[in-house]
Amino acid sequence: MRNPNRTANKRRAENEENVRPDTLIVANSRYGSSNQYTQWLIDRLGADAMSYNKQQLGYTSLYRNIIWVGAIRDAVISNVHMLWQNHHNFGLDGKKIIICGVGIGDPENPDYFNKVMARSGCGPEFCSRYILPGRIDQSRLRLIDRPQFDKFLIDSKRIYGEETHLLVNERAADNYNGVDARALEPVIQEILATRY
Hints:
- By secondary structure, the chain is α/β, with parallel strands linked by helices.
- The protein is built from seven helices and six strands.
- The chain has helices at 7-14, 33-45, 81-86, 110-120, 146-160, 162-173, 185-193; strands at 23-28, 48-51, 65-73, 76-77, 96-103, 128-133.
- Helix 5 runs antiparallel to helix 6.
- The mean pLDDT is 87.
């Protein structure tokens, strides 16, 4: 991911750009789906981006729009709580904040959506919220992550209910890949609307 302070400034200088982008994307990815969505957002919006790092979250204060793209783990968008805990310190009140969770559940299922957002602490007064289709390839799981993923597949019934439990187990067995640039269109349009 691009460092918003160093790499992005160098890129703008090389392209003779004088204006700092208005949007920062914070990507929290372990296996690449969130990074793929982030790259598509960079390409479409000319945004800066950084990988999640607790010590560098203060960079969010430099931008008008913040897009958080993180994996959904046990119905929680990874590390988004750090943004909520520090939003006053970073001066994020009044800024456009978009939260995107990436997971293997059905983004169109309201029950799945509501459970993820409730557990992630994303209040509607705070931000726009989206769930993007992710992917799973169990052969790529690191050895340390396998027991946690197996536990998730069992616990998904308790966390999400029967319908989502059956779906995520089926998708896990099939090595589901739903990552799709078209899923970002509402996010892109929401940012573009702030530029008119």
